[in-house]
Amino acid sequence: MNYVEANGARIPAIGLGTWELRGRTCARVVEQALRLGYRHIDTAEMYDNEREVGEGLRASRVPRNEVFITTKVWQSHLAPREFERATKESLARLRLTEVDLLLIHWPSTQVPLAETIGALVKMKTQGFARYIGVSNFTVAMLRDAVKLSREPLVTDQIEWHPYLDQSKVIAEARRHGLSITAYSPIARGRAAGDRTLKTIGLAHRKTAGQVCLRFLIQEGAIVIPRTSKIERLTENMSIFDFALSAAEMDEIRKLANPRGRIVEWGGAPRWDD
């Protein structure tokens, strides 16, 4: 397992994303992922699967201290009291005393950022989270969050794949020592059929999806691909036995385009595109 270090945290470079995984399927996939060697599981209050993630963790029999668990507090619970309540309820569903990483899932225009960051810091200092961070924060929001936080932030979890240029917010994160966690790293399956990625994959005897994940790993990202297929778990993990050349990396970077973003909804901030 490769790791990314950021502001004191040591985070496994690949994890299992669990968005849209539900019920017994979620518990089974989490269990199998951990048995196969995954050591990073990403969930969220909004995913409505924290209970099943906890079940999968216990069923795997992998020691708790070997697994990095991330969860996130939803946008409607960012006022301090709501934030604390939501965090504790997430822990109760997971049946854990702490998570490794607690994130603000989406920024809010309704609650002052200073109040939410204060609540996030409190959850860390009171022992409910080992590390803290943010998700879907823009350059300006990230800059403000770092200034407001009395504890180091360790990641900004954002949509990132070859079709989306995130260089501005990535540069800002790295300026402050934060890592970048890439969600939707295979662009919700789009990468699997990409001609450029397939061609590069042939040279390495890898799939287009593996090339896509490897690209992000070489760019310094933490990747959390989501899958409900057990066979895909092994495929997604098998990205540390080859390397892309500088020319191949440049070719993949050229896939970015202004309409590359996938995740858009009314609660999103104005992006740095």
Structural topology:
Elements: E1 3-6, E2 9-12, E3 16-17, H1 23-36, E4 40-42, H2 50-60, E5 68-73, H3 80-94, E6 99-104, H4 113-125, E7 129-135, H5 139-148, E8 153-159, H6 167-175, E9 179-183, H7 195-204, H8 208-218, E10 222-223, H9 230-237, H10 246-253
Parallel strand pairs: 3-4, 4-5, 5-6, 6-7, 7-8, 8-9, 9-10
Antiparallel strand pairs: 1-2
Q: Going across the biggest sheet, name each strand in turn.
A: 3-4-5-6-7-8-9-10
* Helix proportion range: 25-40%
Listing every helix as H and every strand as E from the N terminus to the C terminus, the arrangement reads EEEHEHEHEHEHEHEHHEHH
In percent, how much strand structure appears in the residues?
15-25%
- Shape assignment: globular
Question: How confident overall, as mean pLDDT?
Answer: 97
Rg over C-alpha atoms, rounded to the nearest angstrom: 18 Å
Tally of extended strands? Answer: 10
**What number of domains?**
1
Euclidean distance between termini CA atoms: 33 Å
Q: Number of helix segments?
A: 10
CATH architecture label name: Alpha-Beta Barrel
Q: Segments where pLDDT lies below 50 for 5+ residues?
A: none
- Helix-strand category: alpha/beta
Please give the largest β-sheet. 8 strands, parallel
CATH fold call: TIM Barrel
CATH superfamily: NADP-dependent oxidoreductase domain
CATH class, named: Alpha Beta
